[in-house]
Amino acid sequence: MIEQDIAKVLVTREELEECVVRLGNQLSKEYKDKNPLVVGVLRGSVMFMTDLVRHMPIPMEIDFIDVSSYYEGTESSGHVKIIKDLDTSVEGRHLILIEDIVDTGRTLLKLKELFEYRKAESIAVVTILDKPERRVVDLKADYVGLEVPNEFVVGYGLDYAQKYRNLPYIGVLKESVYQREILD
Ligand code: PRP
Fold first, then answer.
1. pTM
2. Ligand 1 atom 7: the closest Cα is on which residue?
3. Of 77, 79, 142, 164, which one's alpha carbon is 20 to 30 angstroms from that of 106?
């Protein structure tokens, strides 16, 4: 079972639920007359996004974009390739970008630039987790669930080698798991 690879639980399901309710209420107030386009950045955002929109009883549309960030070691490099684009035009729309984590900030900075170029009316960034100490570009999330320390976190959408996204909480991965992979 995947739980045996987790060293400790960092954010429980209940704490995640509290964040989702709080952010859902906040966003519902601010976007109630704006018919926002809620954009999930695949794949990590899926669990958070599907929970969040069910706490936003306002008119909205949803869409998804899949980007691949090129990594240099453990950091995204700022080169972002679109794997799957939105199906919806963003011109004149109020966008709410949903992420599982903001780390260096490079991916979201690139996405914001792209949607500004495509003439979105407004762009807000919502993330369930924020690692501010890892930031290397000037990118601030507008709505944050929780700030987390610089640890190897997985679960609730976040992966390690594409696994652990289905854990219902955020956990810290045991060092032995990624050391094992390096040795393999
Ligand atoms: C993760 C995360 C963000 C990005 C954050 O995506 O979902 O999109 O990295 O990193 P940054 O702030 O350093 O740019 P990843 O490329 O791992 O894809 P995934 O969502 O499919 O897990």
1. 0.94
2. 44
3. 164
